[in-house]
């Protein structure tokens, strides 16, 4: 007489009862603003994993938990894709990262940060503050994409941003912001804070109408004193924003 054993798995329990067996986790949320993660991924050579269906599942799972996921096909050797996830709960972003890895993608770089309103922008109208803390992405008509991290210099005996008075820093940042506002309608800037969270102090995500809009914006802003004397930049990532199917097609992920 043949013997068989039923293996009870969480998936089987959910299918038969409609009840989830997954442990409920307390949300890990900021007191204000959203958590942000940039995941830079590569399609492994000879990929034979679950594939694009699992990627769609990962994106849908995060979005159904009230988080945003923006995709970009990257140019150059550093990565094939960027998944920009943002929303209230770090657990959801961690699950997104796990799901993408299980889909067969190799995560080759990442950046963790928080949306914020700068201490130098306290006088902004409330509507503009909310847009910085809770942005809706990606902006329509801006497919060009760029990300880079940056910090303010603190070299002993040389330029040290943190040795300046608040009044001096405010003056420099107001001049910096004035240059950025000249690109309104051409470039959307998402500046997120990462002190204590990642290797630099801010993450800068730019969406542009044209690729040279991004180049001109960064070039122009490097000449103001706040950047010329005090800014240090990390690696730059450049890509093209698209829907999930478009991006996966662009990078050859089947």
Compact overview of the structure:
This protein is of the alpha+beta class and 254 residues long. It contains eight helices and nine strands.
What is the helix tally?
8
Structural class: alpha+beta
CATH topology label: Alpha-Beta Plaits
Unreliable runs: none
Biggest pleated sheet:
8 strands, antiparallel, barrel
Shape: globular
Widest beta sheet: strand line-up? 1-3-2-9-5-7-6-4
Helix content: 25-40%
* Total strands: 9
Number of domains as seen in the coordinates: 1
Radius of gyration: 21 Å
What is the CATH superfamily classification? Apc35880, domain 1
> How large is the share of residues in beta strands?
25-35%
The CATH class name reads Alpha Beta
Summarize model confidence as the mean pLDDT: 90
Succession of helices and strands: HEHEEHEHEHEEHHEEH
Explain the overall architecture.
The chain has 254 residues and is an alpha+beta fold. The protein has a single domain (26-251), classed as Alpha-Beta Plaits. The protein contains 8 helices and 9 strands. It has helices spanning 10-17, 52-64, 90-102, 126-133, 166-181, 211-221, 225-228, 244-251, and strands at residues 35-42, 68-74, 81-87, 106-115, 144-152, 187-193, 202-208, 231-233, 237-242. An 8-stranded antiparallel barrel has the order 1-3-2-9-5-7-6-4, surrounded by 4 helices. Helix 2 (52-64) packs antiparallel against helix 3 (90-102). The longest helix has 16 residues, at 166-181. The radius of gyration is 21 Å and the shape is globular. The mean pLDDT is 90.
